[in-house]
Amino acid sequence: MASLDPKLNETVAELVGRLKDKPGALLPILHAVQDAVGCVPPEAVPVIADGLNLSRAEVHGVISFYHYFRERPPGRHVIHLCRAEACQSMGQRGLEAHAKQALGVDFHGTTPNGAFTFEPVYCLGNCACSPAMMVDGELYGRVTPARFDDIVSQWEKR
Amino acid sequence: MTSPITIYVPRDAAALSGGAEDVAHAIATEAASRRIDIRLVRNGTRGMCWLEPLVEVRTAAGRVAYGPVTPSDVRGLFDAGFLTGSEHALYVGPVESIPYFARQERLTFARVGVTDPVSLDDYLAHDGYKGLARALAMTPADIVKDVTDSGLRGRGGAAFPTGIKWKTVMDAPADQKYVTCNADEGDSGTFADRMIMEGDPFVLIEGMTIASIAVGATQGYIYLRVEYPHAHRALSEAIATAYAKGYLGENVCGSGKRFDLEVRLGAGAYICGEETSMLESLEGKRGEVRPRPPLPAIKGLFGQPTIVNNVISLASVPIILEKGSAFYRDFGVGRSRGTLTIQLGGNVKRGGLIEKAFGLTLRELLYDYGGGSASGRPIRAVQVGGPLGAYLPEAQFDTPLDYEAFSSIQALVGHGGVVVFDDTVDMARMARYALEFCAIESCGKCTPCRIGSTRGVEVLDRAMSGQNRQANLSLLEELCGILADGSLCGLGGLTPYPVLSALRHFPEDFARNTPKSQR
To answer: Which of A149, B16, B222, B400 is the one with CA 20 to 30 A from B82?
Structure first.
């Protein structure tokens, strides 16, 4: 198994040390690691498992269960496009096709320039302003293909 | 020196999604350049989403609203004299006289849109913490009795009587008990939890504190979905303030009782809105469903007696304690007491949040409140109760929104989400989506859900490509029966609702072939 580079190792160990005594500490630790380094790299698993006295398989099983945790770093920004029913009733399917073409990637893909990772999401709670999308935690409503292009070009510069 | 003029621009995510942040910034800048002294309050939303961003100005005649406002409208609003409530193209009048709002019965949402959500002073000035004050003077058994007598049933969707759940936890002997709030709100088409957490987080904190005192719990967790960063910020801010002012911690309001509260983030798994799966996730595990019994009330988080309640259920507790069980019970019909927070979304002209006593019909909701479809085309179907709720045709639009009436037509009120579709909807695609969603989100613990959802998509695809259509549709119905009877929890158990209701009420959409590209 590849070992973590020393700086990452230190970061993960520090987060584990700080959070491991919380009851049910694994999810808070995984969130903290992903917040700090953009993903939960496979090399971090032994460090986390060791700190919590779990097997590596148990930690891996939790990471792989949740859609939100990723093992590889995403693009500079993550676009979440809602696929749920309310958005579908307001033209989401056309928007999704447009987005895939505009970005040149399918769901879970990262654009070749590394600017965006494109993910589906099942409801952002903005169903009265459908269709909705989120970029790095910022929510957008009433998204048309033209507005999508606009939002993407704004974020591309950030 | 005159006092500053108060202007309200919501901080709710729906308003922000339409540009409220830029509007707030433009107003502050414009006021500064005109040397006008204003006080900008970032309130919650009034729930009239089609008017968001909705800007309100406090005038001598009350709060006057303008919307939907874009940054480029701001200069014109100042020119027109909106600070004194003058006419303007975006003028919608005194906000509480707008019929959509005026006809509601806002109990749980009484403060949402009115106050500054993270201001404890504002909360206290609007009757906040009166319920807790009364609860602290009561015995735990009396608190539980009040909640039971109010008729409050779990607003997450299962509609189990809240007081009975509390009594079970109260009566269970244990050194450590927990109060957990299910804020996973993964049901698509629903946003009431989000709006109350962003618009009045203290009411949830107060409700959980009352619950902790009633059952003798000292630790609470709010399990919040990661898709709600705005709610996370509002809750974190409010919890920190509640600790600083002695409303949380080792000595709640000087009562000598301890209650600690923490927000825990989910990680994008729909199934974690199921209560036992949520408990597994809180314990740091895969969110796999637990078989019941034992009930979480007896053996819940870390094996201890645990309350698991939805956000709206807990946020309804303070007003019940403040005004008494009879006050709350007097709203509603039959066995559905109190108010339902309806979330109207999708293809509808006036979408938003409507809190109203149980008993409103779908037709009143869709046309009197919603104003018909957004597209102007006829409304063909509505889905009520999230992704596992039934699709209803126009013939059922006179059904009143109450638990029993919906259950009698094989439908669910659920968490009160209502999603509207016009006549361009293809119901075979919606049925396929329901099965696909179940396959994506299944936790994998039980076979009917894990395998059945995938087989369901395949069987439906075969039917829709014209292969043995009738035989495959019959097979799909049979498969739905297995899912309904054999699944451990509601995900597999209820996925048949949208599928079978689509088949039953819209058979014509299953009678023609769907090209593969359009599934």
So the answer is: B16
Which residue of chain B has the CA closest to A80? B227
Among B274, B285, B519, the strongest candidate for a mutation testing the A interface, having the largest count of A CBs within 10 A, is B285
Alpha carbons B284 and B272: distance in angstroms, whole number: 12
Preceding peptide of B507 cis, ω within 30°:
no
| Domains within chain A, CATH numbers bracketed | 6-65 (no CATH), 77-156 (3.40.30.10)
In whole angstroms, what is the distance from residue B92 CA to residue B79 CA? 17
B424 → chain A, closest CA residue: A89
Tell which of B286, B288, B312, B421 to mutate to test the A interface (max A CBs under 10 Å). B286
Is the ipTM, as predicted for this complex, more than 0.95?
Answer: yes
The mean pLDDT value for A64-89 works out to: 97
Q: Are residues B228 and B369 in the same domain?
A: no
User: Quick one: B360 and B463 in the same domain?
Assistant: no
Entry pTM: 0.97
Window B:45-84, CB contacts with A under 8 Å: 49-50, 52
Structural domain span for residue B88: 5-101
Could you tell me the two tokens for B175?
């050194």
How sure is the predictor about A4, in pLDDT bands with cuts at 50, 70 and 90?
A: low
Beta-carbon separation of B417 and A27 below 8 A: no
Q: Is there a domain that residue B113 lies in?
A: no
Asked if pLDDT for residue A2 goes beyond 60, the answer is no
Question: Quick one: B67 and B81 in the same domain?
Answer: yes
Q: How many residues does chain B have?
A: 519
